[in-house]
Amino acid sequence: MNAPLAFDRPGRPSPEGAEHAPASGRHVGAPLPRPNAKRLLAGRGAYVSDLKLPRMLHAAFVRAPFAHARIVRIGLDAARAAPGVVLVATGEDLAKLCTPWVGTLDHFKGMKSAPQLPLPLERVTWSGQAVVAVVAESRAAAEDAAELVEVGYEELPVLADLDTALAPDAPRIAPGFADNICFRSVVETGEVDDAFAAAAHVVEADMAFGRHTGVTLEPRALIADFDASERRLTVHHATQTPFQFQDLYARHYGLPEARVRVVAPDVGGSFGIKLHVYHEDMAVIGLSMLAGRPVKYVADRLEAFVSDIHARDHRVRARAALDANGRLIAIAAEDETAIGPFSTYPRTSAVEGNQVIRLIGAPYRLDAYRGDLKVVFQNKTQTSQYRAVGHPIACAVTEHLMDRAAARLGLDPFDIRARNLIPDDAYPCASATGYRFEKLSHEACLARLKGLMDYDRLRAEQAELRARGVHRGIGIAAFVEITNPTPAFYGVGGARISAQDGAVIAITPSGEVRCTISVTEQGQGTEAIIGQIVADYLGVPQEVVRVITGDTETTPHGGATWACRGAGIGGETALQAAKKLKANVLKVAAAILQAQPGDLDLVDGQVVAASGGAARLSLAEVARIAFFRSDTLPPGTDAQLTVAHHFAPSGYPFAFTNGIHGCHVEVDAETGLVKILRHFVVEDCGRIINPLLVDEQVRGGVVQGLGAAFFEECRYDGNGQLLNGSLADYLVPMACEMPDIAIAHMETPTKDTELGAKGCGEAGTAAASAAALNAVNDALAPLGAVLTQIPMTPARILTALGAF
Amino acid sequence: MKARAFAYVRPRTLEEAHAAFAAADGDASFISGGQSLVPALAMRLQAPQVLVDLAGVDALRGVHLDGDVLRIGALTRHADALTDPLIRRHAPLLAAAAPFVAHPAIRNRGTLGGSVALADPASEFPAMMLAMGAEMEISGDAGLRRVPADEYFLDLYQTAIEPGEILVALHVPAAGPHACCAFDEMARRRGDYAMVGGGLMAERDGDALRAVRIALFSVGPTPVRARGAEAALEGRAPDADTIAAAQRALDGDIDPMDDAEVPAAMRRHLARVLLGRLIRKLEADQ
Ligand SMILES: Cc1cc2nc3c(=O)[nH]c(=O)nc-3n(C[C@H](O)[C@H](O)[C@H](O)COP(=O)(O)OP(=O)(O)OC[C@H]3O[C@@H](n4cnc5c(N)ncnc54)[C@H](O)[C@@H]3O)c2cc1C
């Protein structure tokens, strides 16, 4: 798509914090291509859908045509008699095997959600919900038989929008519920009402954010293989979090954890989609138990649209108070967010909204803040964490208010932000909502963005083109991103989701290196950066480091991939393990060389003199002796050439990152179509392990943010039917519509780890839609139109312009 | 998303194709490029017992100039509309529309005949048949017949082709020395079905336009001739007043559908904008 421009890779600014001096190696910090990219490009990837196990069966599901209905009758005879059918199972069959789950977390006080089972017993609660499972010799045979299943329904009232669900007399989403609110939370700091009363300026906006979904290139897929002879379950699963699923499958199906193995082979994108419990996936485990054979299920694209988690879907009313000098003194925001008929398990559907109300205003000095969140049940597909959880909403609300304030005060968007961003010398400090910031670089990023965009020239060009009836707009948006979470995220809420990671690193008999680690790979390059870190901190070339991930049987337990933690936490785990192993290698080498370990170093696979660097012995030779001629080592030599290390962050609860986006657009005021001319990002994810991968993470994230801004929206009718559940109607951003994306970096490493890396995977998504919204509004300002809703479709833009 | 099982036959002649269709008692589908049919099969929106593949029927192939009519075989690919020298020269409107149809992979397989037989109201090529005043050659029980574009599009996905009949070729009047044309559409993403689109054919007579034919798509259940707008332009130089008059007249030509993404009033607005752009494009090309 975007050929990298010379522009995109500026000489990296000299890292601050020189105490994080890298190891002697040449890998960390270098733009090395991912070692697995070639294999995947060559078509040698092995995804779950590529796997064929002996005696494997295929599952298809009969799905609910109504958003809310009572199941009055299920007729299975014709399906059971259909050719190739091995098993037809209902909710009742699976409820005998699988215990129910409830998607709440203890630290979200007062949260409620109905218990869930793989398939429903009495009621369907969203359109597209799986009701009956058909297992057959092929997927086609299973689909043929699924057409023969007869389900009788009695329709029930549907909650298909926020107002209906919030009405006092609304039908309840689940029996016995007092209302349809899953979770309510209010955070308040300072004297908010006084600040608004005293403000020189108050700006406000009612904003709406569309519901969208992840659209991973590879859909959800799993094969459950239950071996009754050993009561052993193996699940080949396209997931980000194998250990989480090992735990869940074990507990809900009553198996010892050690008898459950989850293998995540090549995974084609996840973005948060592939770490939630899906009803079909849970069902497939039970189906394999019932059939006594491996059962495969691959969600097709139509199924993905009605069963993959949806995300966002917020309505926010927000106000900001400023003093006469344009200093922000208070923000108040109410967020109502529409979820599914229950809260998603095990991470809930409340984290998104919780992060919205806690991240609003976060880049700015702000003493008074009130955020009020309502998480509201709907008869729609379940929602949960998707890339940049809550961030784009918080960012768009904050940055839209900042632009409104700038307009009110006659300030340039850069100017009002310069007056209000937390100064770079103010750290450590905390946000109004209590997030603790170790060190951020907002001011440096703001200055860098201005240069990167060539802002003054863009403004001059804008004025010139305006005279010719061309409407260009420039928008900027600052953000902070939550990365490297400690157990403060889920652990404290009672979820068995690990915030630590583990690595085992071994020297092989040939002197190569094998690293098994709990973080996982879905195309972002986790294995590449772990290889780089191990290479440098152990002292070997990266080519000899084999990194193995994604198998609960062979890697140590850990959190894997979520919330931007692979580099920061997984990377530190690998670093510490590599250092431990290096010390062990040097001990053995010292024994062989009759030297002191402290006088030796390991560089590029060679044991060398620490001073002077003269080569003494190859690592291969150390390994040969340790493995095959231990008899030649001095008695008592402890040759531990395999080490294990676990690491959990323990300093700040989260390693916050920051950055700022700029977006340059041209709006066709006659058609409502927007051409995105260019997008700019300056971000600070701490120590950069691989600039190539960081840049592509940012670009991918930006594209998803621009998708939310202009294209992606799950549209429902009043009956809770999804109207555009296919790739013909649900528009994802495509290469032709995407601009070049220029990226620059600041580097403020975290001192909580030796590596100093923070996350970068969500930085692109966090602020792209906000910058785009501000850019479109900047273009439309002279025409008297304001948009407060994304996606900014042609219909919404033309409506705002009063064009029809 | 697996199609139901079906039988597959690949006839060599029109007669064999008709026979194969008849043998299935009407429960058959012809397949050309498969770019619309195969997704419909996979989603089980259609599930014929038999697929009759037209790819082996030579009578449906080739592009020839026959006097002042260009005969375009039904199996001609979308991609050929971009590259075939005869099409580029004698049916320039088709060539102008082709880059807007889907994406290269689909254009490599999709056929002009398949597109015109399907007659999706949002499709480019069927509307261009209308704009160019083409005739559709159809093979049926009574042998071959030709139906002018103005009588061909009947209703949503309904054309003059009866079940079991085969679209054999498109006969397009070759563009004369004074012919001019313009194509444009408004789509949210490149290659998508458009919110509104259209093509315009005319003869230049000094500053004036004559024999103006305008066809719009995505404005109703079938492609639509904009006869009011044509009349407003006919014999006039397309100055600002004439364009405005044509845009006003357009309102009576179309009765667009309403949907959440593109409300009817917005389609009318976009159609007016499009018409203005088509005419200006024509002038810019002069
Ligand atoms: C992702 C995607 C995007 C697309 N975008 C566009 C677009 O922007 N614009 C657009 O116009 N189209 C678009 N299409 C559709 C594409 O152009 C199709 O190829 C075309 O509409 C049908 O041509 P086909 O040869 O593939 O026909 P098929 O799919 O083979 O057949 C379509 C129908 O026509 C019938 N049929 C085919 N040939 C004949 C014949 N000779 N006689 C009688 N009946 C026949 C078949 O029975 C079937 O009912 C898109 C398709 C895809 C998959």
Task: Please supply descriptive tags for the structure shown above.
heterodimer, A: 804 residues, alpha+beta, Aldehyde Oxidoreductase, domain 3, Aldehyde Oxidoreductase, domain 4, 3 domains, seven-stranded mixed sheet, six-stranded mixed sheet, globular, disordered N terminus, B: 286 residues, Uridine Diphospho-n-acetylenolpyruvylglucosamine Reductase, domain 2, Uridine Diphospho-n-acetylenolpyruvylglucosamine Reductase, domain 3, Enolase-like, domain 1, five-stranded antiparallel sheet, four-stranded antiparallel sheet, 12 helices, binds flavin-adenine dinucleotide
Structural notes for this entry:
The complex is a heterodimer of chains A (804) and B (286). Chain A is 28% helix and 24% strand. Chain A is an alpha+beta fold. Chain A folds into three domains: 48-156 and 220-298, Aldehyde Oxidoreductase, domain 3; 310-486 and 652-800, Aldehyde oxidase/xanthine dehydrogenase, molybdopterin binding domain (Aldehyde Oxidoreductase, domain 4), CATH 3.30.365.10; 500-647, 2-Layer Sandwich (Aldehyde Oxidoreductase, domain 4). Chain A has a seven-stranded mixed β-sheet, with helices on both faces. In chain A, strands 7-15-14-13-8-29 form a six-stranded mixed β-sheet. In chain A, strands 18-26-27-28 form a four-stranded mixed β-sheet, sandwiched between helices. In chain A, strand 9 (221-227) and strand 10 (232-237) form a beta hairpin. Mean pLDDT of chain A is 95; it is low at 1-22. Chain B is α+β, with helices and mostly antiparallel strands. Chain B has three domains: 7-56, Uridine Diphospho-n-acetylenolpyruvylglucosamine Reductase, domain 2, CATH 3.30.43.10; 58-173, Uridine Diphospho-n-acetylenolpyruvylglucosamine Reductase, domain 3 (2-Layer Sandwich), CATH 3.30.465.10; 179-284, CO dehydrogenase flavoprotein, C-terminal domain (Enolase-like, domain 1, 2-Layer Sandwich). Chain B is 35% helix and 26% strand. Chain B is built from twelve helices and 14 strands. In chain B, strand 8 (153-155) and strand 9 form a beta hairpin. Classes of the chains: A alpha+beta (804), B alpha+beta (286). The interface between A and B is medium-sized, with 26 and 25 residues. Bound molecules: flavin-adenine dinucleotide (FAD). Residues 29-37, 39, 54, 74, 78, 101-102, 106, 110-111, 113-115, 117-118, 120, 123-125, 161, 166-167, 191, 193 of chain B line the site of flavin-adenine dinucleotide.
